[in-house]
Amino acid sequence: MVDNQDHNFPPLEGISAITDIHHQEAISLSSSSSSSSSFIENKCHGLWYTAILSIPALLFVLYLGFHLKKNIKKLTHRRSHVMIAYYILLWFSAVLNLAWCSLQVWQCMPGKEISWNLLSLLTALGTLCLEISLVAFLLQESYASGLEALAQTFIVSGLIVGADIILKAIFVFGFHVPLFVDGETTHRGKWGLWTVDELLLTCTYGYILCVHYSKWRDKLPPRPAFYNYVVVMFAVSGVALFGCGLAAVGVGFGLWPFSIIVICYHTLYLPFVYVTFLKDFFQEEDLLLDNAYYSEMKDAGFFDSDWE
């Protein structure tokens, strides 16, 4: 009996070992759940932030869709290669921007890091290509609607945007820099790259403003809307540079101006481009038609009573 009891003790040690394993697993699960919850708390903005970004982006896409048929008719009738290219690029950027604004929750999901970075890179590709191509178009001495000017514009902008996107992809996927994750507020590599990016844009817009006030002013388009665009973008890039520079040196206040610029850029930039560069083109034919109707009615004597 004693021997049998002695032989029955070891299984008790095995049971205690099993319970210890389950206890350790429970601790690890709780720690992982707490880390995932802290991950979500640090990187999620919430429903209101997503709504603030998504609603204006959705309204702009709906606006483009509402006028799509009429705008396509005008583009095919007038055959302006520059306007056709920018209209297609505007649609491409608007759809990607809507997806980026609506899928902010991907920052909070551990399995969506690659998808979020790819979506962010594509969105940056569309908007930056539109922005740089407009700058290249403004800096050309001849801003006609020919294929040669269009090809030259997109070759220059394509090289600049391609180099920028490749560099960002290397930082994100090669060096694992959280470039598009808002929760990472102390990463020096992230803010250093954004500072350089905004510095180049600020210097470019500042150069255009200097040309506007110099003897080479005739090389720029004579339309005031183009100058207003440059002034606004210089101010926007300057504020973003200020925020990125503060964040790069560890000043937390820099996150506020940078975040405000991000919201304004993703909600207002594409409508601003449409109003500045495309809206007059689509409305010009209607204005000419209204003027023709007015001239015909005036010749027919409809307005003679106004002079009596």
From TrEMBL:
Subcellular location: Membrane
Residue ranges that the Swiss-Prot or TrEMBL entry lists as coiled coil: none
Membrane topology annotation: Multi-pass membrane protein
Primary localisation category: membrane
Membrane spanning residue stretches: 46-66, 86-106, 118-139, 151-171, 191-214, 226-249, 255-277
Lineage top rank: taxon: Eukaryota
Listed GO CC annotations: plasma membrane
Protein name per Swiss-Prot or TrEMBL: Transmembrane protein adipocyte-associated 1
Species the sequence originates in: Centaurea solstitialis (yellow star-thistle)
